[in-house]
Write a structure and sequence with these properties.
CATH superfamily of the largest domain: NAD(P)-binding Rossmann-like Domain
CATH topology of the largest domain: Rossmann fold
Mean pLDDT: 95
Low-confidence stretches: none
CATH class of the largest domain: Alpha Beta
Order of helices and strands: EHEHEHEHEHEHHHE
Radius of gyration: 18 Å
Number of strands: 7
Number of helices: 8
CATH architecture of the largest domain: 3-Layer(aba) Sandwich
Largest sheet: 7 strands, parallel
Shape: globular
Number of domains: 2
Length: about 260
């Protein structure tokens, strides 16, 4: 299937590793021109070089922290300067820290809000004028299955990520007339550094090694395994494409069947 992405311009945040990198690689493989950004310049440049080598696509690497409004503006400005516009935004950021309600201070709640929700607001704000000008756009926000079912020990994520879903639902109504589609994609247990860190912490709490704990971590997943970043990226790339032209305002989980709820 031709996804109609050849020549499109995409910005992928937090793209030096994990799901962000996999999404950037998937878009580039379909012929998109891709800007990748992340805080670590060394990791970012390595990821950009890998994507270029594997896909022969045009890749622009811009070191940036999505917590800094000036960095977000610079990423979008450099993308427009290099590629002439922005068609696709993959809004992504590292998740808030693990912990229970009693462990979290006001400062930690504020930091989680700025990282998870406000960074998404700012990214969307910067790309919208370019998408409106051409009357075409795809905005994908990477969140978590916690927006559909709270996850034990992730009170910050459980409390703040649903706000991004509310934002996306609202913008789907506002932006539809401009042919700009916005959706939320929710990974379940995907094999990223963050997941491995969380699993190691839980394994340690259970007095087990990571390898001993893995059967417990996968027992609830109907497919019986943890997903890969590439499997997650396949869904994101489709939603960013011409072929997903009638999908907006959706919250789609990529979780191997982990979430049992009907909504």
């Amino acid at each position: 299937m031709d996804l109609g992405l050849k020549g499109r311009v995409a910005i992928v945040a937090a793209a030096s590793k994990g799901m962000g990198k996999a999404c950037a690689l998937g878009l580039a493989a379909e012929g998109a021109r891709v800007t990748v950004c992340a805080r670590s310049e060394a990791d970012l440049l390595a990821a950009a070089n890998e994507i270029r080598e594997k896909t022969k696509a045009e890749v622009l690497a811009v070191p940036a922290d999505v917590l800094r409004p000036a960095d977000i503006r610079r990423v979008v400005a450099k993308t427009v300067e290099a590629f002439g516009g922005v068609d696709i935004l993959i809004a992504n950021a590292g998740g808030p820290p693990l912990g229970s309600f009693d462990q979290m201070s006001d400062a930690e709640w504020q930091a989680a809000f700025e990282l998870t929700l406000l960074s998404t607001v700012r990214l969307i704000r910067e790309v919208l004028p370019h998408m409106r000008k051409q009357r075409w756009g795809r905005i994908l926000s990477i969140q978590s299955s916690s927006v559909k079912q709270p996850i034990d020990g992730l009170v910050l994520s459980n409390g703040i990520r649903p706000g991004v879903v509310g934002l996306s639902k609202t913008l789907a109504t506002e932006l539809g007339k401009d042919n700009i589609l916005i959706n939320t994609v929710c990974p379940g247990r995907i094999l990223t550094d963050r997941l491995q860190s969380g699993l190691r912490a839980r394994a340690k709490g259970a007095g087990k090694s990571l390898e001993e704990y893995l059967p417990t971590a996968t027992a609830e997943i109907p497919l019986g395994r943890i997903g890969s970043p590439e499997e997650f990226a396949h869904v994101v790339v489709f939603l960013a494409s011409e072929r997903a032209s009638y999908v907006t305002g959706a919250t789609i989980q990529v979780d191997g069947g982990l979430i049992r709820g009907i909504p």
